[in-house]
Design a protein that fits this description.
It contains 3 helices and 6 strands; from the N terminus they run E-H-E-H-E-E-E-E-H. By secondary structure, it is of the alpha+beta class. The chain has a 4-stranded antiparallel β-sheet with strand order 1-2-6-3, sandwiched between helices.
């Protein structure tokens, strides 16, 4: 697997936003379903150029949801990696945040 295919996109929710504001910076990413902790760590270092302290992986299973029709909706299964950075390091995703 190519390292550029491992990390798909950042995973942003209210809970992940709180995790980034703590002393230990933790960032969440949606990763490939076949990715391992070692692959995520190598891909993160290749993309952002920052070493990470720790990587945790959470697999979210597919869930049925209610809709207004007879057929239920489905939330897709995901694999999420929580990357803990070393103290004193930070990632900036948007250009607007860099200016401030």
């Amino acid at each position: 697997m190519n390292l550029s295919e491992v990390i798909i996109k950042p995973y942003n929710t209210e809970k992940t936003y709180l995790m980034t504001s703590l002393d230990k910076k933790k960032y969440c990413f949606v990763v490939n379903k076949n990715a391992t902790k070692k692959l995520v760590e190598e891909a993160f270092q290749a993309i952002y150029g920052i070493k990470c302290e720790k990587v945790n992986i959470v697999s979210k299973v597919e869930k049925k949801t209610k809709t207004g029709t007879k057929k239920p909706g489905v939330k897709k299964a995901k694999k999420i990696a929580i990357v803990t950075l070393l103290p004193g390091t930070e990632i900036v995703f948007d250009e607007e945040e860099k200016k401030e």
